[in-house]
User: What shape does this take?
Amino acid sequence: MCPRPEDEADLVRRAVNGDKKALEALYSRYVDSVYRFMYYRTGDQAVAEDLTADVFAAMLKAIPRYQERGIPFGAWLFRIARAQWVDYQRREERRKTVPLYEDAFSEPAIRPSPEEILSHVYFASLLRHLTEEQQEVVLLRFVGGLSHKEIAEVIGSNPDAVKAKVYRAVQRLREILRNEGGNGLGNA
Assistant: This one.
């Protein structure tokens, strides 16, 4: 979902000033893409839900201090998501556990079709063929819906480098699909 910039700017301005309806609207607008980002990073529904909740809790704490300064709200929010992901990885590394790629839809509240389940599982399996950096830019671009410029803000890079990283990742996915008998992906 790509919100109209003026609508989002108004929502953010109101949210910064404590408007609960604006905060709810921003949550509704971004919760699915943040969840999918976390799910594809962890492969675990419960962990993805917890991390998504952590992202929005951190957003609630930080939003009174939010100032755009050339960084759109979506990119700012995914910076928070990325930080939560990195913190999670550090905690897991200390615990020496490996995330399992389990069925993401085991809870009755979420009932996608079998085709959707297979699609998500297949996408997660394809992502494992990419480097961590490639996984991140693919998820931010295609799951998070961020522009190359916004991704650059999230990962601390420049838009041209991000564009090249996304291109290389998509090329790698095409190669994998061709080797599996698929016919490649659409353009980035």
Summary: The first helix runs from residue 5 to 16.
